[in-house]
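Good morning,

Attaching, inline, the backbone tokens for the sequence recovery test we're adding to the shared suite. The designed sequence is right after.
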């Protein structure tokens, strides 16, 4: 029986030895896990600090962007108002220019009416016949019969007083110069 007790003691000693080895191994693993946990915690703290810093910078950047957007909206409003003001001015100028153009057209029509009449008799020229359009050497225009009868009495152009003769009379062929029929 003593042998059995010795065997049991040896078994218990071996079990104790195995348990101590397992305990030592578990302590080492536990130490490693504690170190890993401490590392993870320190990394977590760093990440939290970085996140908070990033959040603060993001908030600051967002505030800066909002200020910039506000300034841009103000500038846009000013530009929009300025454009509207210039458009109004341009519209007024357009109206003024249209009135001026109408006046110039009326003046031009009146002047053209004067330009299609004989400066001697003040009657419009004919396309053919005795009062058809003719020119003197100086370039002035008259009705044929009017200038011939005038040159019978005088040898100068009635407009510019340049010397001229009846053989210098030239017929003018141009539809735009003659009055509308």
């Amino acid at each position: 029986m003593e042998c059995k007790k010795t065997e049991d003691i040896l078994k218990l000693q071996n079990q104790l030895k195995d348990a101590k080895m397992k305990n030592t191994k578990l302590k080492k693993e536990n130490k490693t896990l504690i170190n890993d946990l401490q590392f993870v915690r320190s990394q977590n703290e760093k990440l939290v600090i970085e996140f908070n810093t990033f959040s603060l910078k993001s908030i600051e950047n967002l505030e800066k962007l909002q200020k910039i957007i506000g300034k841009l909206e103000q500038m846009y409003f000013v530009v929009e108002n300025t454009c509207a003001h210039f458009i109004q001015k341009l519209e007024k100028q357009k109206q003024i220019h249209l009135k001026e153009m109408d006046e110039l057209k009326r003046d031009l029509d009146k002047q053209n009416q004067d330009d299609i009449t004989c400066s001697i008799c003040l009657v419009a020229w004919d396309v053919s016949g005795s009062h058809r359009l003719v020119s003197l050497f100086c370039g002035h225009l008259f009705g044929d019969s009017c200038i011939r009868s005038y040159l019978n009495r005088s040898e100068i152009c009635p407009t510019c007083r340049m010397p001229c003769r009846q053989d210098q009379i030239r017929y003018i062929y141009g539809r735009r110069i003659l009055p509308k029929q």
